[in-house]
Every structure is written in C-alpha cells, then in structure tokens.
Amino acid sequence: MLIDGFQRVHDYLRISLTDNCNLRCNYCMPADKNDFTAPANLMQAHEIFQIAEIFSQLGIRKIRLTGGEPLIRKDAAEIIERLSSLPVELTLSSNGILADRFISCFKQAGIKSLNISLDSLHADKFARITHRDYFAKVFSNIQLLLKENFHVKVNMVVMKGVNDDEITEFVNLTREYPLHIRFIEFMPFTGNKWNSDQLFSHEEILNRLSSTFDYIKLKDGKHDTTRKFKVIGYEGTFALISTITEPFCSGCNRLRLTADGKMKNCLFSKGETNLLAAFRKGDDIIPLIKENIIAKKAERGGQFIEPDGIRDPASIVNRSMVAIGG
Fold first, then answer.
1. Distance CA 178, CA 256 (A)
2. Could you read off the pLDDT of 237-257 as tens digits, one per residue?
3. Is the pTM of this model over 0.90?
4. How many domains does the chain have?
5. Strand, helix or coil at 66?
6. Could you tell me the residue range of the domain that residue 19 belongs to?
7. Of 166, 177, 204, 241, most Cβ neighbours within 10 A?
C-alpha cells in the first residue's frame, strides 16, 4: 500500500495524457500559454502503461485519465485499451467534444463513468469562457453518453459574476436527466489570475439553491471530494467541491502523474518527482514514488493554509491547471 506520513492510504491515480486542449478556458489555461510539451517529452503509450502497472502493483485501484483534453492524443484509444488490462477501475475526464468518437472504445475498456466539463448552458457564454464555439457539440455528446448508459458527471467551475447565475439551471437539468452536477469552487493556479472576488463558495451555492429547491443530503464516501445532494423527485444529483473554503484533505487518496511524467502528491504541491526521467534511464521508480508520498503535506500542498484564506495568490508555487491535469 501507498501510505503517507498522515496514515492516508493512496489508491487513486490521475494520469494526464497531454497539456494541450481544444478549448482555452481562462481558469485552466493561461492566456499566454502556447508552449505545449513536445511529443518526445510526453509519456509514450507504453511508458504510461508500464508506469501505471507499477502503481497498480503498489495498491492503486482506480485510474482517471485527464489532460488538457486526453482524447486529442492520436494514441488515446491505444492508451485506454492498454490500461484496461490492469486490475483497476478506469475512468476519464474530458471536455466532451470528441466523446462521440470513443463510445465503442470506452465500452470495450470497461469505462462506465465519465466526468465532462461544462461551465455554461448558454452558447454565447460558453464561447466567452472557453474561447471556442463548441457548446452544441458538448451538450449533444452529454446526451449521447447518457443514452449509451454511461454515468455522467458534469463539472462546473463556478465563478462569481461569470456563471454563478446559472447554478439553478444546472440543477434543473437533473429533473429529467440522470446527470450528476458538480459545482467546483474557483481555484488558484499559475497564470489563471485568481482573486477572491470571483470565488463563489459552497455555502453561497447552497444558499442560492435553498431558495428554489427542496433537496436532501446524500451519504458521502470516505474519500469523496464532493458533498452530494439530491432534489426530491429529480432523476440526477448535484454536489459541491469546496477546495478553497472547506477542504477535504484528511481523506485524500489521490496521486497525480503529469503528461511529462512528473509525480505530484497533491493538486497544489510545490514539489514534483520526475518519474519519467528515472524510468527512461532504467532506474527503479518505486523508491521515488514512496519518497514522494511521504513528503505529502497535511493540507493543500502546504500552501494557502491561512485561516483567513489566500493572502497572496501570486506567492503560490505550482503549474497551471492544464499542465497538472486537474
């Protein structure tokens, strides 16, 4: 088992396949980012499989593929197929644009659940947030995934003054669709110009929804990052991810592998371990993995842990969100 210094067992690995994307969301990708990792410096398909296999031997039981947009890799189907042979639950986070091309691939790989990013239900606002005109395609593919009996979670990053006015519209989707809406607090990353004025907290979200819906609290799992709810009589559910105002680090079981093969023990960790370089040299990466986990901080990578919140976002040492893999 992979256990850190706080006795947290880690059995969930998020693997980023690329830091490139076919959207340009401001909260994820810095406006000036145009230096995506060169293909030779990305983990190759066989390297992803072999490193993932080592992690599975160490106790990883769930793998989520992320990006950037993981499905834009030309060998995405090959990677998914290879990983499906491991004794893990395989899943994926995507912006949904290319999902229709991978339905058969997902089914053959045993993927049953997908997370789809969608930050607005209005085409014009979607285009402003993402700088691309793909709303109709994304929403159509969400409906297709439901039709094909996938468990679909829709991730919405809530930003005050940008899309917080759509919260009730998203919950209304769960009236007729068995969707699982997840409202995510706006988080600070390198280059995304985060400021507290745009933070719409989980408490504010619930207060907003309380005036419109009668909902009940659902039971959360030990390692859940969400607090789950359901409107009485609706098909789907909604949930809150309160990373900033009420973190859930005590139950964290997640590790991350960036597209260029660096291991991060937390979404907000300062340090990284270059597993890919060691792997390519033929070194044993197991000691490196264990050292990385032991170095994990108690909460949010040891950053912005002041009781009154984030005092100086510019002081945070990290990558951009797209370069981490979310």
1. 29
2. 999 998 888 877 888 999 999
3. yes
4. 1
5. strand
6. 2-324
7. 241
